[in-house]
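User: Could you go from structure to sequence for me? I need the amino acid at each position, not a summary. Structure tokens:
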């Protein structure tokens, strides 16, 4: 009988302990998100944000980190009680303090970056610029995306806006991941005017993206096409290129067109790559037209269903092939004729 009573007692104590633990670790209350936060409100905001920063740090799996992130951001997502600009600023300032250190930890870096990048307030600028330097490409992506979300606010603060633009441009200049580079380009292209140097940076990013195309079947044709489109948009919106930079742009887009057409004709692209191939070549042609200010470079009359032999023939006439100059070389004699891809060379 005593043993049974002990079991019941221990069970009750266990349940009580569970409730106590839940009560102790429950998230702190958050003050009203309307109006300007008072000093005591700011203290409560700090406790709320700090709690979820600790939750993210203590999480043992990505799902737990995502839950912490979503619960932290929930007050900013309310459609029935939208937060005031003042509340968002104080909230963001505290997130900047508590979540920026998490960018330096591989386990929490990505969710911290998404958290920071999801708060549309200028208080996040420093943290987002820090994210641009992270070794994780996904973190750099969110750094760029987050800065893009606050550029309009920063525009009212000239030096801060210029600092953010330069941070993205400097990151883009060395960004090795084509997807991240494309996001950085896209962010810069939303500005009016487009920042000087963007067209050349897009050319450099495209050159890095296709660096291995001669030797390896591409797996990022769609992204390369997007970078070519970014180059066209940048030039069309006033991002000027010097004569040498135009030469580089024509060289890079020629390679993209030629290698893609060669792989398509050789039947070395899978079904997904085939879908991207014609679109990518067409975007390269549009970039060439933008760089030269002409309409001479075109794949008109052809489409994704056209015979690959006809597509390659047209591309060869534009880019040159096997010692025969194309339209590009007639306008830019220094642009080398793209070589044949290694997979087609005799071994």
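Assistant: Here is the amino acid at each position, in order:
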């Amino acid at each position: 009988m005593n043993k049974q009573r002990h079991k019941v007692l221990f069970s009750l104590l266990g349940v009580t302990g569970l409730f106590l633990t839940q009560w102790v670790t429950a998230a702190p209350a958050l003050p009203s998100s309307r109006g300007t936060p008072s000093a005591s409100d700011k203290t409560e905001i700090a406790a709320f944000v700090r709690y979820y920063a600790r939750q993210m740090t203590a999480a043992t799996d990505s799902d737990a980190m995502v839950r912490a992130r979503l619960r932290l951001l929930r007050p900013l997502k309310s459609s029935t009680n939208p937060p005031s600009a003042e509340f968002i600023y104080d909230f963001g300032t505290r997130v900047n303090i508590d979540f920026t250190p998490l960018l330096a930890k591989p386990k929490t870096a990505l969710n911290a970056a998404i958290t920071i990048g999801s708060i549309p307030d200028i208080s996040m600028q420093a943290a987002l610029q820090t994210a641009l330097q992270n070794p994780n490409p996904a973190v750099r992506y969110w750094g760029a995306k987050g800065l893009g979300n606050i550029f309009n606010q920063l525009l009212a603060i000239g030096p801060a806006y210029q600092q953010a633009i330069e941070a993205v441009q400097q990151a883009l200049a060395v960004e090795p991941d084509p997807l991240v580079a494309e996001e950085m380009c896209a962010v810069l292209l939303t500005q009016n005017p487009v920042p000087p140097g963007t067209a050349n940076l897009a050319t450099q990013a495209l050159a890095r993206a296709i660096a291995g195309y001669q030797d390896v079947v591409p797996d990022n044709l769609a992204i390369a096409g997007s970078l070519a489109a970014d180059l066209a948009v940048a030039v069309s919106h006033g991002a000027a290129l010097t004569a040498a930079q135009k030469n580089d742009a024509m060289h890079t887009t020629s390679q993209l067109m030629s290698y893609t057409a060669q792989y398509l004709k050789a039947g070395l692209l899978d079904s997904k790559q085939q879908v991207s191939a014609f679109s990518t070549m067409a975007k390269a042609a549009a970039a060439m037209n933008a760089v030269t200010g002409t309409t001479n470079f075109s794949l008109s009359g052809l489409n994704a269903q056209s015979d690959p032999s006809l597509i390659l023939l047209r591309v060869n006439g534009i880019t040159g092939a096997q010692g025969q100059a194309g339209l590009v070389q007639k306008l830019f004699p220094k642009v080398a004729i793209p070589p044949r891809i290694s997979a087609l060379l005799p071994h």
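One structural detail worth keeping in mind: The chain has a mean pLDDT of 91.
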